[in-house]
Design a protein that fits this description.
Layout: H1 3-16, E1 21-27, E2 33-39, E3 44-50, H2 58-73, E4 81-86, H3 91-98, H4 121-130, H5 150-162, E5 166-172, E6 176-178, H6 189-200, E7 203-205, H7 216-224, E8 228-233, H8 245-266
Parallel strand pairs: 3-4, 3-5, 5-8, 6-7
Antiparallel strand pairs: 1-2, 2-4, 6-8
Helix pairs in contact: 2-8, 6-8
Length: about 270
């Protein structure tokens, strides 16, 4: 799904389901809108996002379908939770990947958006530079400074604005859940990580230090000291084929629902 098809889908859903709010939280390097979908009106705010990485565009489809399914169900949790979703953080990069550059993860000027956040950015830069990622390219270039890109800046600003109790970031691949960052220990994170693993069958793993730092999840945990999770959806080599979509969704949908219910029944949220 390229950015134009994605944009049409977003507006079609908004027209079909009036309870689904659509906002633009910023624009990409090429001026494409970065959309946020919102469901519910409860006091507990949650934020799910997908497609930080271009060739992981299947995650945008997962989050859009989840939004549509939730709008159809119109569940009672909508009175207790406000769910914000940003299905395609990197629309420019997705267009590049879909056009044929299947190794492309970055935005249009070659910055890896999920290595552009302030948490441990200098450490990420050192690790990436040591591996040869010193200039803009398809992957792993951290940018000239933290939040240098309009896409990552928009996500950071939107996160601060909605002040979520937790975040979930969908990536591919590995069928793994990353939930720790350094020595931070947010309340409820360990318990929810276990529940997400049980709901999906995905394994709980730690990110190797050389691959950690400067990601959205890292920044959220450091900035808010609340649970943040990276979900590595599916198995194989990115971009995963559309033929994998149904199987991935069957595993990830219960995980996302668990993330919605858990704050209602288990967490004390301090603002």
């Amino acid at each position: 799904m390229d950015s134009l098809s994605y944009e049409k889908k977003i507006h079609d859903l908004a027209a079909k389901y009036p309870l689904l709010e659509v906002d633009i939280i910023g624009n990409s390097r090429m001026g494409k809108p970065i959309y946020a979908l919102t469901l519910g009106y409860g006091p507990v705010s949650l934020l799910f996002n997908a497609a930080h990485h271009a060739n992981e565009w299947i995650t945008a489809l997962i989050l859009i379908k989840f939004a549509e399914d939730c709008a159809k169900e119109n569940g009672s949790w909508l009175k207790q939770v406000t769910l914000h979703m940003v299905p395609m953080v990197n629309p420019d990069g997705v267009d590049i990947a879909i056009a044929g550059k299947t190794d492309w993860k970055a935005n249009t000027i070659g910055v890896d958006l999920n290595s552009n956040y302030p948490a441990g950015w200098e450490l990420a830069k050192a690790h990436k530079f040591a591996r040869g990622y010193t200039t803009p390219g398809p992957r792993d270039y951290v940018g000239p400074y933290p939040l240098s890109e309009p896409e990552s800046l928009a996500m950071a600003a939107f996160t601060t604005h909605v002040n979520p109790a937790l975040t979930i970031s969908l990536h591919t691949q590995g069928e793994e859940i990353y939930w720790r960052y350094r020595d931070f220990n947010p309340s409820g994170a360990a318990e929810l990580a276990l529940r997400l693993s049980q709901a999906s069958g995905y394994l709980l793993e730690d990110v190797p230090d050389e691959s950690s730092h400067a990601g959205y999840r890292d920044w959220f945990i450091q900035e808010f000291n609340r649970p943040g999770f990276t979900i590595e959806c599916g198995l194989g080599e990115s971009p995963l084929p559309l033929s994998d979509f149904d199987e991935i969704y069957q595993r990830v949908c219960p995980l996302l629902k668990e993330a919605i219910i858990f704050p209602i029944i288990s967490m004390t949220v301090s603002y």
